[in-house]
Amino acid sequence: MKKNEVPQDDSPLKKHKSNELVYAVDDDGKFVSVQSSGWEPKTIIQNQNLEVLNQRVQEALNDVTSGKISPIVYYMELNRMDWQTLAAYMEQWTFFVKRHAKPSVFNKLSTRKLQKYADIFGISIDELRNFKG
Q: Start and end of every HTH cro/C1-type domain (predicted)?
């Protein structure tokens, strides 16, 4: 692709001012790095991914407010984490962290564990304990 053909389409990440570095051929036939603000096919995929992630957050919110799961799941989804990532931050086996998703187990967690979750999610321990969505 030539330097002047590098796509500069709108991107959902545009508000973050994160241009992507791509390589193109300049007028002398040499490879040069060029900033691209977006590319339509990539933007379509990004929008679809964001929609799926937002749906997962909404489902978690609904499940927490209905008492099916603990707030840990909501904050995990909100922070775009999976069980393995959260377990790594907690420095625990995934099995134990998944158990904390059960409201009955969550309600028995120590203040120390809850504080660690709160720190990971960037919230206060009160926000975690007294979930309001």
A: 107-128
